[in-house]
Amino acid sequence: MKFIDALRLKSKLLFLFILITLGLSFIGIVGTLNITSMKKNLDSLYFGSFVTVLELDEILDAYHIHLQTNIYLAKNNIMNSRQTAATIKQAIKKIDKNWNSYKNQYKSNDEIPYINYATKEIEKSKKYLQKLEQICLEGKEVNKISIKTLTSEITHIDEIVSKLRAYEIDSAQFQRKELLDTYYETKIKLGIILFFVIGGVLLISFIVFKSIQKDQSDLEVASRKLKEANRKLENASYTDSLTNLHNRRYFNLVFEREVKRAKRVKNQITFMMLDVDYFKQYNDTYGHIEGDKALKEVARVLKSVLKRPSDFVFRLGGEEFGVLITDVDAQDSATLAQKICTEMEESKIPHSGSKVSDYLTLSIGLVSCIADEALNEEDIIKQADKKLYEAKESGRNRYIMSNGVIG
User: Given this model, what pLDDT does residue 117 score?
Assistant: First the structure.
């Protein structure tokens, strides 16, 4: 039945899709036919006029700001000759780039003679500017440059370019009027067509949606159940099934993230590596079932001592555990480690095979340091493991601490 229901739902959705597609296709075809003419006018307005005005403004800007202003500064010894030469060279490049871009665009037959004339005049001014650049490069006195001559050249070019700019703006206004006329005419046509087409599509869609509403509700319920199952599965993949602590997989994910976070704010970070003392002997003496109970008790002790949401407790494997905490200084970290050792022994789990106590105990290797850019995640783990080894060698049932990853 589920397979048949799924087929029915797919058929209904396909039918709805075909209806909407046909309606939108009709709108698209009609709209395309009418908007194509508008597109041509739009391109002509913005790309034939507006952009060209910007290019002409860039040319005027180069003459007035990059040349006239900076040469004035040079004559008044505010700018040295090499800086002035570089400014002139940059201005010439800017003028060439924008003028070539402007004149290579489409031009009507009426525009071409004036464009050719303007090109010649700009080339003349370019030669004049190159002479000024050469004077500056040769280290000659910049103050000998005639401001009157420079102003005359720039004023002449300004008149030529300004006429082109005014022409482009007038052309843009004319083209805009034509565009608006076409736009309003097309808008009315499309409005009428869209009213009937969209109304029809909505009516049919409403009828179809009513028929699949129940199926959609069932799908939503199934989707919620699936999400919940996935969430539980994800939590299970990061949790040790025996102790309900975070497992090694979650440790690999969180450890790198928390170290990087501590590095960003130069925060204190503490990592403890814990090991149950003589756990092999405990299993040999009491059996693996009791060994599992003992590991659960270790987890309980760790949770009772480390209660903050930012305290992470992991079962790394076997009888090995890990603790990662931040925002706790070295002295408080040592206090926590000692409290873990004390509470573990005070749990009074008998351990006749232990050489250090009548009860089950822990050894802890502790690293506490300020996280900086030089801190390496692997070094923290290695140093904690080293201190754990020292704790075992020095008698177990204790912690050994390192203030940093070296030592």
Answer: 82
Is 154 found in the same domain as 45? Answer: yes
Domain membership flag for residue 35: yes
Residue 242 lies inside a defined structural domain of this protein:
no
- The pLDDT value given to residue 1: 47
DSSP 346-407: HT--B-TT-SS-SB--EEEEEEEEE--TT--HHHHHHHHHHHHHHHHHTTSSSEEEESSS--
Give a yes or no: residue 238 inside a domain. Answer: no
Task: List CB contacts of 347: < 8 A, sequence separation 6 or more.
Answer: 297, 301, 359, 360
Helices 330-346/288-305 angle, 10° precision:
140
Radius of gyration (Cα) for the chain, nearest Å?
A: 41
How far apart are alpha carbons 150 and 90 in whole angstroms?
17
Beta-bridged to residue 324, according to DSSP, are 271, 312
| Residue 237 in domain | no
Two structure tokens written together for 317: 């494997």
Local mean pLDDT, 10-residue blocks, the chain (407 residues): 55 69 69 61 54 73 72 71 78 81 76 81 80 74 69 78 75 72 75 75 70 65 67 69 92 91 91 96 95 96 92 94 93 95 95 94 94 87 94 95 74
Q: With the CA atoms of 177, 178, 182 and 184 taken in that order, what torsion angle do they form, in degrees rounded to the nearest 10? A: 10
What is the number of domains present in the chain? 2
Is 321 found in the same domain as 182? no
One domain for residues 25 and 171 = yes
> What is the DSSP secondary-structure string of 112-132?
HHHHHHHHHHHHHHHHHHHHH
Q: Which residues contact 143 (CB under 8 A, 6 or more apart)?
A: 74, 75, 77
Q: How confident is the model at residue 297, as a pLDDT?
A: 95
| CB-CB neighbours of 195 under 10 Å | 10
**Domain limit, last residue, from 183, 209, 235:** 209
Tokens of residue 41, six digits: 């006018």
If asked whether residues 167 and 255 sit together in one domain, one would say no
Q: Which amino acid is at 253?
A: L
Q: Do 205 and 313 share a domain, yes or no? A: no
Do 188 and 40 lie in a common domain? yes
Q: What is the DSSP letter of 313?
A: E
Domain boundary among 186, 209, 232: 209
Q: Which domain holds residue 60?
A: 2-209
